[in-house]
Amino acid sequence: MDMHGGHDGMAMTPNSSSSSTNGTMMRGHKMHGMMMHMTFFWGKDALILFDGWPGGNSGMYVLALIIVFFMSVFIELLSDTRIVKPGSNPVVAGLVQTLLHVLRVGLAYLVMLALMSFNGGVFLVALLGHAIGFFFFGSAFRKQHHDEPYDLPPMSC
């Protein structure tokens, strides 16, 4: 048994007869010597997007936070971009809009997967990136051109 009551690093199922040392179910399981968290936690010991990365290295953890931040900002930029000009070829405009949509959704999924590390720092930089991106690219702070529609409709929750 490991310190969380699991056997050989495997997560316990609700119907299992084993329990952890404090009588509650395990909140995560070990993978490759690192704890996979299933609740929010603070610290650099996280797995973000790739196996073994950042691997407890402080510099790589900061790099991971910077990458998540800029992906969040870029999502907001893509949401409010105007690349297709009115009167453009409809097929070309449709292809450009489709590519922008795929890029935006792909980045949004990557940010979501990074958030699934349950690391508090990742959560905060993702929120900050979306907030700053929206402030500069999508809010009233930015000069609005009402006669030019956005290439992509806004993402909705």
Automatic annotation (TrEMBL):
It is a multi-pass membrane protein. Keywords: Copper, Copper transport, Ion transport, Membrane, Transmembrane, Transmembrane helix, Transport. It is found in: Membrane. Pfam families: Ctr (PF04145). GO terms for molecular function: copper ion transmembrane transporter activity. The chain crosses the membrane at residues 59-79, 91-115, 121-141. Residues 1-22 are annotated as: Disordered. This is Copper transport protein. PANTHER family: COPPER TRANSPORTER 2-RELATED (PTHR12483:SF24), SOLUTE CARRIER FAMILY 31 COPPER TRANSPORTERS (PTHR12483). The keyword Transmembrane applies. GO terms for cellular component: plasma membrane. Its main location: membrane. Belongs to the copper transporter (Ctr) (TC 1.A.56) family. SLC31A subfamily.
